[in-house]
Each structure stands twice: as structure tokens, then as C-alpha cells.
Hints:
This protein has nine helices and 33 strands. It is mainly beta. The strands form eight sheets. Strands 12, 13, 14, 17, 18, 21, 22, 25, 26, 27, 30 and 31 form a twelve-stranded antiparallel sheet that branches. Strands 15, 16, 19, 20, 23 and 24 form a six-stranded mixed sheet that branches. A five-stranded mixed sheet has the order 3-10-11-8-9. Strand 5 and strand 6 (105-109) form a beta hairpin.
Amino acid sequence: MTTRETGYGRSKLVFKKSTLAVCIAALTAQAYGQTTPEEPVALEEVVVYGMKQSLENAQDIKRQSSIVQDVITASDIGALPDKSVVEALQRVPGVAIERFEASNDPDHFSVEGGNVTVRGLNRVRGEINGRDGFSATGDGGLNYSDIPPEMVGAVIVKKSQSANTIEGGISGTINIETRKPFDSDGLVLGGSVKASYADLIEEVKPSASAIVGNVWDTDAGKFGALLSVAYSDFSSRGDGVGVFNYKAVTNAGSNPDGENLFAPIGGSARQQENNRERLGIAGSLQWADPSETLQATLEFIRSDSTLTWTEHFLEFPAEPFSNDAGSGNLNLGPDATYNCLPGNQHCLFTSGLILGGNGGQDDSDRAFRGNPFYVAGVRTRDDERVVNDISFNLEYKPNDNLTLSGDIQYAQATNKVMDFTVLGRMNSTDAYLDLRNPDKPVFEILDNGNGTTINSAQSYFMRSAMDHAADSEGDEKAISLDGKYTFDRGLVNSVEAGFRFSNREIDFKESLYNWGSLGETWMGSPPKYNEYQNQDLIEQFTFKDHLNGHALNVNDTFYFPSAELVRDTEKFYQQVEEADILMTDGNWRPLHRRSSAMEGSPFRPAELSTVEEDRSSVYVQLNFGSDESAIRFSGDIGLRYVNWQLDATGANVFGAADGIFTGETEPSSWRTRGGTIGWNRWIGRTQQIARLWLTTPLDTMTTTSQRLPQAAQLILLQLLPLV
Length: 723
């Protein structure tokens, strides 16, 4: 049985062992038949292509292109042990992937890789089959880690621009080509079942894929259909140790001679368990008329990806706020070691104790004017992204020189996020850091003899909570018309021109990170964990084999808020209220319980926005080159005109004003030059100022220079009685 498979740009014949046996038998019969003259038998030529042929196909595409680009063919991706397209892309020269969940979040690792950069730049445009890759995330761009590699026929990385390339890829464009029915001449049937084992969390997760397609030749033309489905369930664990900013060592015991010593004010350790479920569906129908001058392609692609993770972490919460408690003083033990820079410059901490501050005033190493402590926090996050993309392409080729094509695309996407963090504060502790081996950093949290131990529930209390939600959706419509005329001879190979229009609209619903306090020592005496230890509010968690046993070995078990309870903000809120954990001055409320939240929603009106983008472009491009000259060359010259319009509707609430006018995040008092006034009075006075500002007939003033001084005077007149 012989089948034909197609990589990118060239078809290939593949045969099984039964076909080989038939060929050998035919050859044997011909050898013995020489004693009796017979007509020669014509044998079918069977050509076997391996991985080398796929690489040659990619090289041919790269060589024949007038721009700088690299190609990964389907065989390449299928042969690589990669979990997603983004993993395969890191093998392309000049392409790098980020190993963090987000570019601005280096604390959280991504085992499968995150964003893609080309030559160090992150303005990379993502395409699927030459069309916009769309999502309902902040930038509306394609998330490569959401695409199963089993659905992909080729990945083309364009590192330079040309007029016929859709605008937006400043650093480059990555185009993902899915499989089509006409890539094969007959029946295509395949599948795979795999399993991955995560040794750190000791879990086995499955993945499976299947593809089926066929092509039929009829009197009405050539028909083809193909369906590809891929599912994967993947778990992983990420361990991390970090240090905060270096600051001057302040205690006399560590700095007796006034040396210029600098050390981090604290360290951190985190352990994050991830689970990603991904379902990809790609289906396509193709038809070509009997003369093969007209070809139509209808495609549907669905990507459904859910990322769920739970994180336990220990960190120093005073950072990065320079005025927070503990950030102005740094006390180290006498065993601290430093690496002094040449030229009598700073000496940087490499190992030693970072002391907590519960010592007496006569203890120079522990006399602390701030309040150093660590928190044991739990964070849970559910992130679901769904994209549905349907497109239709019609290509007309009346002769060998002229090609006309039209393309229509509609994409719809949703993005839902639920993020919740709860912090439990520990009693003041010492910490040991050893950074002398950057590959094996050591971090330990130690008791400092203050009467309690970190292994006791009595040493913890619930400090704060923070939730965040997003529920965005959007769609995109695009239409394009393109034409290309190829010349048979001469330096000018072809000329092409086209037009494209797209409309993209995204409705963003995204809350702020809603931080609030549950209890603190300045509020009184917050209840300790042991007072409600049997109410399923807290649990012990062990950092098992953290960083392969290099960190958290002395103490690896701590008390944390219950991870299961943290997954439900309303249930958590009700239980902390029932247990009297939420103190009188505690100001955290779940997003949906905020006074200004819309009914039945976790969002405020100011957290809703709509962005609509219209783009239209037209281009013309001339391609030239020669294979017959002494030096082979190719290139293009063209012009692309783009009209881009963006309409954004929404609101922005600036910092303190959010708390002033809602009364939900205010501190207990507001300090002025003359003393302290009640916060409620400040709110009332601010509202009076606002009303006065709105009712004063400033429009009677003729110029801005006249308006601003008088408006400022109105505010000062209201503030003077307070100060």
C-alpha cells in the first residue's frame, strides 16, 4: 500500500513493509525470467524521503525568498520533543522565547515557554495561514503556546519586511501554516498517544492527536476534506529562590569600620504547580474545478487552552516599597561574607544571616527601627483562552502567469482570569542566604529565639488578601484581495498588488488588583492561626526537595492559608468573617462586594473599556532576481500604504482618588502639616471641593491662564482651615 504525504512545498511517497516485499518479489521474478524472453515489466518508482528531505525543503524556501526568513516543516516539529509551537520556535536562529508567564513577571516560570522575541525585539506579529492571529488578551495578539504542534504543517519566521507582508511585525512575523487536504493525493490517517511524567510532582499526564483526510476526483472537480484534533494535559512544577534590592548595611555589629557594605534586605522562595489543558481542532474543505484554474478553501480552527496554577511562597513584603516598614534598616550577622569590587568600591553580600528585629535595644545586631518579617502566601490562578477562527479563500489562476486570490476571515475570542492571593504573616525571623554558587543558591528561614517558632501555628496570623478578575471578549473581521503576475524571463520575476481591510473590537473587563488588609498588629491583636486551626482555613505545606534539595532544608514546612479555600473568594470572605479574622479596620472585600461594583459582577464601571481598531492597506511590489548570472541574487521593491484608526472608550481612576471617593481603601487617618485629621472629614472636605469646582462658573474666564490660578485658589481656600 502506498500513500503520499506532503511537507511544505514538496510531496513525498512513503511505503510500508508490505510494499517493499512486493517490489523485491517483482525484481526476483525478472531475474529468473531471462531464460525465457518476455516483454520487460515497468516497475513503479518508489522514493523514500527522510528527515533530510524536510530540511532540504526548508532550505529551498529560505533560499528562494527575497527576504530573510527561516522555515520549520511539519516533519521537523513532529520529530522534536516539543510541547508547543513556541518550544519549536526557539530552535530557529535569531528567535528566543521567554521562560516566564509574562514579560514583567520574572517570579513565575513557564515550563513550556512564553512570549517570542526575534533578534531581541518583542514586537512580533503572529499569523495563522497568513491571516491575523487573534486573541482577547491585552494586545490582541496570538499566544503561540496555545497551539498544539500536531495541527501545524509549517512555521515560517520572517525576519525582514516587504510590501506584501501585513503590517505590525516590527521585529518580525511568525506565520503558522496548518495542514490542508490537497497536501496529500489520497487518504491520510494517523494518530498518536503520548504520556509525560513530571518527576517533581510525580504525575503522569496524557496527550493524544488524530488526523484523517482524503481527496476525491470527480466530474465536478477535485474535493478534499481533512480534520485534525489534538489534546494534551500537562503538569509541571517550578521552584525559585530570589533576593531583593541591595541596600547599605546599617547595624554596627556588621559594619564596625564604616565600610561600604551592601546586602539584600531579604530573600524569597516559591514553589508553583501548573496544569495546562489544551484542545486544538483544525478542519478544512477544499475544491478545485476540473481545469484546476479555480480553487476554494474553507477552514475552521479552534484553540481552547486552560492554565491553572497554585503557588506557595515565602517572601519579604516590604519590597519594593522603599518607605515600607523594614526597608530602611538592614542588620546582618557577624558571619556575613562579601565580594568587594576592585578600586575600593562597594562590597556586595555573598552569604550570611539577615537578622530579624525582635531583639532588645541593647542588642546592636537586633536593635531595629522597622519591622522585618516574612509572609507565607498562597496564590491561585485560572486562565482560560478560547479562539475560534473561520476563513474562506478563493484562488483563480487563468494561466501560468496570473494568480488572483480573495480571502475572508472571522475570528472570535474570549479570555477569562481569576486570580486570588492571601498572605499570612510570620513572627519576626532570621534568614540565611548563600549566593556564592549561582547555580545552587541556598535560602533558609530560621527561628531567632523570640519565644515562638515557625513550626507553630501560634506564630502566624492572616494579614491581607488580593483578588483580580478578567472577562474579555472580542472579534475580528478581515478581507483581502491580491494579484500576482509572473514574467517568464528577464530580471523582473513578478509584480504583485493587493488590498486589505480589517476591523477588530475587544471589550475588556479587567479589575484592578484588589488588595486589602485582613488584620495587622497596628489594628490590635490579630487572631493567630492556632485559634482557628480546626476550621479548614489553614494548612501545612512542605517545600519538598526545593531546588533539588539546595534550599529550604533546615525548615521546609510552614503554615499557609488553605489553597482549596483560596480558590473561592466569596467562601473565603464568609469564613474569615465567621472566624473573626477580618478585623474592624480590615478593608479587604471581594471584587463583587465592593460598593461600586455592578450588580452581579466583580467589575466597576471604570474597569470596563472597549477598543476598536480599523486598518486598511494597499500595496504594490516588484520582485526581481536571477539564477543565471555569475552571482545569484534576488530582491524586491515595493510600497505599502496603511490607514490605521483606533477608538478606545473607558475610564481611568487614579490612585488615591479611588479610595477617597469610594471609602473602601482609606487608611485610618490622613496626616497634614498641622497634625492628624479624621479621614471621614477629609472625604467630606474633598467632596465639597469637588462640588465647588463643578459649580463655579469658570467658563466666564476667557483663557486657561486665568482659569487655573482661580481654580487653585478655590482649592486652597478649602484646605487652609484643615492645616
